[in-house]
Amino acid sequence: MTVQVNVQEAKTRLSQILAQAEAGEDVVVARDGAPIVRLVPVTSPPPRPVGFVRGSVSDAFFEPLPDDELKQWE
Fold this sequence. Notes:
Layout: E1 2-6, H1 7-12, H2 14-22, E2 26-31, E3 34-39, H3 67-73
Parallel strand pairs: 1-2
Antiparallel strand pairs: 2-3
């Protein structure tokens, strides 16, 4: 079901109109009887999978740097 409200009514009843849109109702805000916007609920994106990067890191990656190489970074 589509609910159409004018701008003034939308200002006055914003919380109620937002609740209607969240509940899945089609809410249209109109100016002088002409529709200008449609309110729709925002959906959260699906969670991103962990481990989506291909490849691996060798155990040597986690070893401390040798002193001579470490000094080059300082």
